[in-house]
Amino acid sequence: LGEFMLKIWNFLEKARNIAVAEPKKVIHCLKVGVTLTIVSLFYYMRPLYEGVGGNAMWAIMTVVVVFEYTVGATLYKCINRAIGTFLAGSLGVGVHWAASHSGDKLEPIILGISVFLLASAATFSRFIPSVKARFDYGVLIFILTFSLVSVSGYRVDKLIDVARQRLSTIAIGASLCVLMCMLFYPIWAGKELHNLIHRNLEKLADALDGCTAEYFTDSSAGDSWKKIGGYKCVLNSKAAEDSMAGFARWEPAHGRFNFRHPWKQYLKVGASLRSCAYCIETLDGCLNSEIKAPELLRRHLSDACITLSSSASFVLKELATTVKTMRKSSEIDFSIGEMQFAVLKLENAMKSLPNHLVATPSSTSDGDAKAEPIRKTTTPSSVMDILPLATLVSMLTETAA
Amino acid sequence: LGEFMLKIWNFLEKARNIAVAEPKKVIHCLKVGVTLTIVSLFYYMRPLYEGVGGNAMWAIMTVVVVFEYTVGATLYKCINRAIGTFLAGSLGVGVHWAASHSGDKLEPIILGISVFLLASAATFSRFIPSVKARFDYGVLIFILTFSLVSVSGYRVDKLIDVARQRLSTIAIGASLCVLMCMLFYPIWAGKELHNLIHRNLEKLADALDGCTAEYFTDSSAGDSWKKIGGYKCVLNSKAAEDSMAGFARWEPAHGRFNFRHPWKQYLKVGASLRSCAYCIETLDGCLNSEIKAPELLRRHLSDACITLSSSASFVLKELATTVKTMRKSSEIDFSIGEMQFAVLKLENAMKSLPNHLVATPSSTSDGDAKAEPIRKTTTPSSVMDILPLATLVSMLTETAA
Description:
The structure is a homodimer.
Chain A: H1 2-21, H2 23-45, H3 56-66, H4 71-100, H5 103-125, H6 129-151, H7 156-183, H8 189-217, H9 222-229, H10 232-235, H11 238-248, H12 263-288, H13 295-325, H14 332-351, H15 353-359, H16 364-400
Helix pairs in contact in A: 1-2, 2-3, 2-7, 3-7, 4-5, 4-6, 4-7, 4-11, 5-6, 8-9, 8-11, 8-12, 8-13, 11-12, 12-16, 13-14, 13-16, 14-16
């Protein structure tokens, strides 16, 4: 029993940590609670039709299913639900009408075939990436509404009445959700995406700094390890970026973002960031390998390497502020030039190496192997990746600012 | 208009390609269609209660919402739906009873507060990773059912009657889904995960082969490029692996997999695979860089490099068959030994380099820079990554076989 209590205690502890770390989430929960209470009590106080068994249920259901963490996701679900319900409803009424006018024997056959065909086709369309990204929820609602309507036992004129009532309750629930979502502490998917990209840029810069410092100063302080570890979450942020960009598309203009803000550019920047992170991963692997370069060689290259990595991380930080302020920094071109100069300097340092190699022929091969990847991986992360990244970001700021 | 027709044509073309590439998906769609038709017509033919407005609706809704692509996902949703509905239903009836016995004034206050508190708490619990992974859908259903039940206008004795009917329709819908899902062409999440890992291992082996062949033979045949590109989808497979492992947990024993198959091991193998893929990404970056090694140096190292990479990719293929057959291959230890020997051989080749360097001091620094990362990245992908991977896989096969 004590073990069970301990488990529960740990669980509560974890929950408390989440709440402290992100108070936004707590606010979201309170918003959901308030909205649901309002809708429930509204329909409880004046049972418009016949209590929960009737249509009031649809308002509550809409609130529970549609209210999401970000404004974009809520809007996506509301709009999808509205479109899906409307299309399926009208189609369903049509099929229902056709079936009811074709005799008692044909009626179930027509209904069955139409449900089968439309459900299969709609389910299949959910596998198509372009439909999945934008209308996944809408298609689900389409299938649901269509089969409910077309199989309903009502006569057509009563059916239209039911549909009207049901649509109005759904509309009330959905609009209440949207209002609550957008008016009180709105959490915009676009802004979250923006912050994520900006944070990831800074994490990469820190990791690059940390790696070089760790390697060349041999200070195994716990602080630098924490810094280096930051890049790891850049590696796995693709899914979060994709979904947020998908939701951000549905959001209206907010803050410094317009309605047709180029969210896809963020995905491209994210992809570049990830390939930078792969380089840093390799760099980190070299840092942890057993093979160590000899002191001599390390000292020879350390200046050039440190210059290069600090200028590269400076560029990354510069890009981070560029993304943050959405304004092209005046220093960015200059610092990219500086970085390229640092690359040349390191290349020169590499070329002057063979003189040392002659002096210490056997031991340097390992050292070379050690120092080389640093240069090599710093180089792609600077020249190969940052240049497209820089053009991307300047593109982004040009379209946005 | 012609443009619009073209768009539709492209869309249909894309859909057809998906259908041809994965006929499983088409079968899944047909299964959904058949199940939905059966449920709809069943309730249409004998309107048990009062037509679709009543409880038959819940059967249709359950089928639409619960029927997922894999067996694991369907079971996850069914079990979650059952648990959520049951818990929330009993709690809701309790609150409803308490509220209805506390006077007309207190009643809405008690109801409102209970809905607010439980909805907020349940929404918050969805942010806790361990709850999200296993019970996300169940919590949603809990909120929905609780607010529906506690706010319903029925008297308690009638409420229990309604709840019983509703539960039975949900049970009919859910069990029909599970039966259809498991009896006709079942698609097991566990098997899909197994195949994904196995395919990814093969792709990595191909990419490694392709990279070395590309670099050392200079044959820019289109075929090898296609091979190399295969590793890119390994980089982004984390989300798919996570969700499939989550669903696989719910599946009963099937094929060669037991109920408590160690699915988490697959995630660890997947993580190792991804770090291999990062290495290959860096290797690929070196392949595409402008700096080319001089012919002399390339020839000096090519033998050792080719041996190493072919033995590494042989190990990967060996691991792939190990995963596929779930039986520890007898050759695996031997081929890992061979790979380590190849690493030593390459290191020796590196050590004998300085002699060449003396002959061509200025031009080799570039060449060195080019050849080094190959060794370096092949080394981690062999020694650093494959060794833990090998232990992991042998662990896996020991627990599984």
